[in-house]
């Protein structure tokens, strides 16, 4: 059977201010080490509220928006998290679109306000955008809803590695059995951090709160699959949970065929470290494999459970049970708990 090899990708990578430097580890077959099957990194999930109908709104609106308007635009770049139009725009002059002229004016534009007559879900809040619109640009429903759809923002530096919009990824929380599969539906420039995902992903992982006070203070491993998307998001922007899971399952199942498949979870677990420090998963894994027997790293079992949820099963001689691995009762052969712990 094939063997997996792990190599850190050259370059400077980060997942935000908490982890200003992280390794991006390439996963490949030993026979083709330069052909990436996947990439792994560690950090905190960064929340992208763009596209949610409650992402941004005027001062004083209640309930408060998910994010602060200062994160949706600035004087040098204009508006990018909300749709901004100038007072002379034909949509505004024809009254098809309404703008809030009391909001900051960036590059001659003001935020567009959702309206009931357009079928917008949250009239009074601003129209929050994502890169591709499936309908009129001033309609909120033309954009992917970050509060409902599990998507990631594609770091521009990943494009040369074979990534594009539509590709799949999986985020696994280390300390709880919580995971979120996602696909890349938003995009950013090369300055964007790895690990930026939609509000839905953050909630799936157990996060709560709003704006800069969203609680993302928990360890997360990410595994991304280049060249894995089937259709560009602009053709059908909102992928269902089942579609994403179906796209991930064969890729994780393929990795689990490796003779050293368990090392994948070990690498993720060894990456875990406190904020501001650099994850050292690859080095710790190599030391673990070379040295005398040691206990597996903390949260290894939880990470394997997260991978198994989406098709990773490195136990060819043990039928996978559909029941919860921690259920008690009759079992055919070793339980999942016995295998993971």
Characterise this structure.
- This protein is of the alpha+beta class and 341 residues long.
- 17% of the residues lie in helices and 17% in strands.
- The strands form four sheets. A seven-stranded mixed sheet has the order 1-2-3-14-11-12-10. A three-stranded antiparallel sheet has the order 7-9-8, with no helix packed on it.
- A hairpin with a 5-residue loop joins β11 (168-173) and β12 (179-187).
- α4 (262-271) crosses α5 (281-290) and α4 (262-271) packs across α6.
- The two termini are 24 Å apart.
Give the structure's gist in a few sentences:
This protein is α+β, with helices and mostly antiparallel strands and 341 residues long. It contains seven helices and 14 strands. Strand 5 and strand 6 form a beta hairpin.
Question: What attributes does this structure have?
Answer:
7 helices; single chain; seven-stranded mixed sheet; three-stranded antiparallel sheet; 341 residues; elongated; alpha+beta; 17% strand
């Amino acid at each position: 059977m094939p063997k997996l090899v792990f190599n850190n990708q050259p370059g400077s990578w980060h997942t935000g201010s908490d982890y200003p430097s992280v390794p991006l580890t390439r996963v490949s077959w030993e026979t083709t080490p330069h052909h990436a099957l996947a990439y792994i990194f560690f950090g905190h999930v960064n929340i992208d509220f763009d596209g949610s109908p409650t992402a941004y709104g005027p001062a004083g609106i209640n309930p408060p928006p998910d994010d602060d308007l200062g994160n949706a635009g600035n004087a040098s770049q204009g508006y990018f998290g909300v749709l901004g139009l100038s007072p002379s725009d034909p949509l505004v002059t024809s009254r098809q679109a309404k703008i809030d002229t009391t909001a900051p004016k960036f590059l001659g534009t003001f935020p567009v306000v959702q309206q009931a007559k357009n079928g917008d879900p949250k009239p009074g809040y601003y129209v929050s955008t994502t890169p591709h619109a499936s309908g009129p640009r001033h309609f909120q429903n033309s954009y992917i809803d970050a509060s409902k759809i599990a998507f990631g923002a594609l770091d521009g530096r990943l494009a040369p590695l074979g990534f594009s919009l539509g590709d799949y990824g999986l985020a696994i929380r280390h300390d709880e059995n919580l995971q979120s599969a996602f696909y890349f539906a938003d995009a950013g420039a090369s300055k964007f951090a790895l690990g930026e995902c939609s509000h839905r992903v953050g909630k799936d992982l157990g996060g709560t709160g709003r704006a800069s006070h969203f609680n993302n203070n928990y360890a997360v491993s990410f595994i991304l699959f280049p060249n894995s998307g089937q259709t560009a998001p602009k053709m059908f922007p909102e992928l269902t949970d089942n579609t994403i899971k179906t796209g991930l399952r064969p890729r994780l199942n393929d990795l689990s065929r490796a003779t050293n498949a368990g090392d994948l979870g070990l690498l993720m677990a060894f990456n875990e470290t406190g904020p501001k420090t650099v994850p050292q998963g690859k080095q710790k894994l190599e030391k673990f494999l070379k040295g005398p027997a040691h206990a597996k790293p903390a949260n290894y079992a939880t990470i394997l459970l997260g991978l198994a949820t989406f098709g990773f099963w490195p136990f060819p001689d043990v039928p996978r049970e559909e029941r919860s691995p921690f259920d008690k009762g009759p079992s055919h052969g070793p339980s999942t708990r016995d295998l993971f712990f």
